[in-house]
Amino acid sequence: MNVSRRQFLWRLLPLIAVMTFVLTGCGDETLSALKPKGPVAHEQLFLMGLSLAVMIFVFVVVMAIYIYVLVRFRKRKGQEGIPKQVEGNHVLEIVWTVIPIILLIIIAIPSVTATFNQARDLKNDKDAIHIKVTGHQFWWQFEYPDYGIVTAQDLVIPVGKKVAFELTSADVNHSFWIPSLGGKLDTNPGMTNTFYLQADEPNVYKGECAELCGASHALMYFKVNAVSQADFDQWVNKMKAPPAVVPASAQKGEQLFKENCMSCHSVGVNGLSFGPNLNGFASREKIAGILEHNDENLKKWLSDPQGVKPGNKMVLSNKLTPEQVDELVKYLDTLK
Amino acid sequence: MAHAHVKRYSGIMDWLTTVDHKKIAILYFTAGGFFFLLGGLEALLIRLQLMYPDQHLFVGDTYNQILTMHGTTMIFLAAMPLLFGFMNAVVPLQIGARDVAFPFVNSLGFWLFFAGGVLMNTSWFLGGAPDAGWTGYAPLSTDAYTGRGTDFYVLGLQIAGIGTLIGGINFLVTIVNMRAPGMTFMRMPLFTWTSFITSTIILFAFPAITVGLVELMFDRIFNGNFFEVSKGGNVVLWQHLFWIFGHPEVYILILPAFGIISEVVSTFSKKRLFGYSSMVFATILIGFLSFMVWAHHMFTVGMGPVANAIFGIATMTIAVPTGVKIFNWLFTLWGGQIRFTTANLWAIGFIPTFVIGGMTGVMLAVPPADYQYHDSYFVIAHFHYVIVGGLIFSVFAGLYYWWPKMFGRLLNEGLGKLHFWTFFIGFHLCFFPQHFLGLMGMPRRYFTFMPGEGLDEGNFLSTIGALLMGVGTIVLLVNIVATSVKKPHAAADPWDARTLEWSIPSPAPEYNFKQTPLVRGLDAFWKEKMAGNKEMTPAEPLGPIHMPSPSILPFIMSIGLFIAGYGFMYRTFVVSIIGIGITLICMLLRSVFDDHGFHIEVEELQDKGAKA
Q1: Cβ of A183 and B351 within 8 Å?
Q2: How far apart are CA B382 and CA B388, in angstroms?
Q3: Which of A64, A167, B96, B423 qualifies as a cystine partner to A187, CB 3.0-4.6 A?
Q4: Cβ–Cβ contact A65 with B under 8 A
Q5: Is B316 in CB contact (< 8 Å) with chain A?
Q6: CB A3 within 8 A of CB A148
């Protein structure tokens, strides 16, 4: 039995390859599950291709019978009489029960193997990068316990290394999804979920929230910056360095920040805060995960955060004047 | 006390007090049809917002309300009532009975569903609709994160849910107890079999969601902590309770659809159903397995590889009996004399569409692949293929097929074909691209998407498809209106069909069968026709027929619970007590005053006479 199953699989393999090929070439380099950029996503795409290939085989058989039947046995003009009434056919019944079971076994075996493979707990793996993710309405907090770094919205990881995630939520269910690197895992309050991903190519990948979490569920993007090991080390050092001295032009902004923003946003390495940690904010791809990072958008965000991301928790007790906004922007621009 | 005081109402009172399964069917179709249009409108609003990237037609919480109501309305207030409409219109006739086992309770089931549906939709005018998705995951759906809109969901579904549970029990008892002499279980038509298994699923699945809703209600209104993590609650509990209901629910939706397809395909190929016993066995197996797979909706929750692997394999196994059914339909058509009436076009359109939905279902059953698919547009594509392509296509097939039996008129075939082609093409145009949108990284329940990520074309095409489906639906409405103004003159058996409902006039008389028929085999009416008989052999002499009396109590009981619902939602418990009190008083009246029904005398039967 094993031999014929393997033979079947070998014959199926080129079809799977074709399927996988057909499915690729679709979508954005940094967002599409059809353009895998890491081993987890690759394994998942293979399973998609395998199950699709088997299912297409079934579809072709069904459609062949279907089309034949509709053409051959349609009622012709003037056709009379009653066709032969057939109760059934035991052989056929057995055939179309047993063959699907075999096909499902072909899909099931690699599926179960991969399920266990991808559930490996890398908590104690010295080679892996360990990151604690906390989902919030509507932003992502990233903590690197091995390096003592807390940041938000932009996740920086080295290429070619397993990244072991511990996921939880501070409020409702969210789901942590980086399609280019692999499937998602939910972040639930009161629980910690673990999985791992890996990026094999340097790029800035898109991360999304994939569980309805409120008004700004669709705006809860995050970025995954996969960089070389050297660049990653440099980033770690930069994040751990004490904050740079604030130039004179930004000191007014710094003061405003301390008065209005510090209660929720910390700017230190170890700062766990109610709102996103802003250490390194000026280097982030986006503002609030959604706006292109430039001064004009930063002013837009500070003037009316609710307008940009309805329902988010950044509610300013005193609305900022345009002058205050300008000063704050100057300060925030220094947070490299 | 009995036939001396025959209560007969007319006009609106007739509809409010009816316990006649045929009229209740029409009530279900009308209400279900109305909610189908409402849900369809919600769908069009969603698709218009997603036609182009970064639009601002409906954003944020407004969008979440529309998507929640679209799902909730379509599943609970459109699909289920339409199926109950068919079960009411057809099952008693197919088994040779004069009504269901509990006609009063049948009416109650309808009015409770209607009360729940209306209650939920008043939310639009009372501060906003529910907005946590039709799945209402906690803790988003607790009062810590969502406002009163979710109360409408919690109360409305509990009320409508009681109606469904009642309906399920009713049909279980009816099918077990009221089959005509000679109709053994293995001589029942497939639609009756699927209604029977569906009713069993309802019986076991609805209590699960009721428990979940009661717990959510306690959390929201009475300071419960079932889903409050800081007090020891667990948010995943909601998901388990919801899906232990939710997965069997989708089989509640699809099994009657399978039954309709079996009837239509058989009639219009002029052949008995191929592999009847296998079809029955496959239906029972699907019903059983439907309770074994719920956690495939939770692969990404973090249950661990053992649970994921087990549920993945269990899910794949459902493909086997379902595949058996597809092949049996194809071989029913094989060797037949296929007529392409509109009803059969829908059945024929169903086959490849549902098969595609089944294919993506098997793909979704692979847990690691599902880690990518889950909560993306791939899942939306899958379930619309099976629910719309499966269920709704079958509903349309059933409408064109049984319309003459219900209304004495035939829907126009020309308009029917136009309806079919616009809706069918629109459907595939709408949902096929969504498979790719999901694979390319578009999550579900997103009110917008960014330009330049490869998602623009798919979303645009999808919206065009949705608009085309809207056009098709309008064609159906035109057909219904145009048909209603004609005089009823359909034959008893316009399709030269096989089952008992076609042996009585169109529309069916009030008492269904002048004399209960004697059933001599599967496809009871066809068997008589092949033996050279124009009518069924009666199993009893002509005599007065005992009928159940109409009653206003079910309507009032539903109003009572409707009022109670508002009391709970607004935390004004005096109102709840009054509402529940109204319902209890009606129940007391029903228990204390014996209803002996009334009789239709033989003279009235012979006056009414059957049309040839």
Answers
A1: no
A2: 10
A3: A167
A4: yes
A5: yes
A6: no
CA nearest neighbour of B267 among B84, B405, B89:
B405
Does residue A296 contact residue A326 with C-beta atoms inside 8 Å?
A: no
State the pTM of this model: 0.94
B587 occurs within a structural domain: no
Among residues A165, A168, A175, the alpha carbon closest in space to that of A195 is found at: A165
**B451 reaches A (C-beta below 8 A):** no
Our separate counts of H helices and E strands in chain A read: 8, 12
DSSP-derived 3-state class of residue A269: coil
Closest Cα of chain B to A246: distance in Å?
A: 35
Which CATH entry fits the domain spanning A2-72+84-117: 3.40.630, 3.30.70, 1.10.10, 1.10.287?
Answer: 1.10.287
The superfamily (CATH) of domain A129-240 is Cupredoxins -  blue copper proteins (2.60.40.420)
Q: Choose the weakest-confidence range: A20-34, A145-159, A270-284.
A: A20-34
**A58: distance to nearest CA of chain B, Å?**
9
pLDDT of residue A272: 73
Give the C-alpha separation, B230 to A169, whole Å.
13
- The structural domains of chain A, with segments of one domain joined by +, span 2-72+84-117, 129-240, 248-332
- Structural domain count, chain B: 1
Residues 6+ apart with CB under 8 A from B507: B22, B404, B405, B406, B407, B408, B488
In chain A, % helix, strand, coil (3-state, to 5) comes to 40, 20, 40
What's the half-sphere exposure (Cβ side, CA atoms, 13 Å) at A262? 8
8 A C-beta contact, residue B315 and residue B309: no
Closest CB to A186 among B275, B300, B308: B300
Q: Is A173 on the interface with B (CB under 8 A)?
A: yes
Mutate which of A61, A70, A134, A211 to test chain B, going by most B C-beta atoms within 10 A?
A211
Distance, C-alpha B120 to centroid of its chain: 18
Q: What is the pLDDT of residues A134-167, one digit of tens each?
A: 999 999 999 999 998 999 999 999 999 999 999 9
Query: What are the pLDDT digits (tens) for B256-279?
Result: 999 999 999 999 999 999 999 999
Q: Is A186 on the interface with B (CB under 8 A)?
A: yes
Distance in angstroms (rounded) separating the CA atoms of residues B524 and B192: 13
The span from the CA of B469 to the CA of B424, in Å, is 8
Determine contact: A109 vs chain B, CB below 8 A.
Answer: no
Q: Is it true that the peptide bond before B507 is cis, omega within 30 degrees of 0?
A: yes
Cα A197 to Cα A166: distance, rounded to the nearest angstrom: 12
User: Order of strands, edge to edge, in the sheet holding A149-152?
Assistant: A149-152, A139-144, A129-136, A163-169, A193-197
Contact B362 A55 (CB under 8 A): yes
Nearest beta carbon to residue B271 from set A59, A65, A86:
A86
Q: Are A314 and A275 in contact (CB under 8 A)?
A: yes
How does residue B9 score in pLDDT terms, banded at 50, 70 and 90?
confident
Q: Pick from A172, A136, A190: which is nearest to B136 by CA?
A: A172
Q: What is the pLDDT of residues B127-152, one digit of tens each?
A: 999 999 999 999 999 999 999 999 99
Kindly state whether A193 is in contact with chain B, defined as any CB-CB distance less than 8 angstroms.
Answer: yes
Cα within 13 Å of Cα(A23), Cβ side:
27
Q: How far is CA B102 from CA B108, B138, B171, B408, in A?
A: 10, 37, 9, 26
A-chain CB neighbours of B498 within 8 Å are: none
Averaged pLDDT for residues B410-436: 97
Q: What is the dihedral of CA B263, B266, B272, B274, to 10 degrees?
A: -90
Residues in chain A: 336
- The ipTM is 0.94
Q: What is the Cα B7 distance to its own chain's centre? A: 32
Q: Which two tokens stand for residue A273?
A: 């805060």
User: Is B564 a domain residue?
Assistant: no
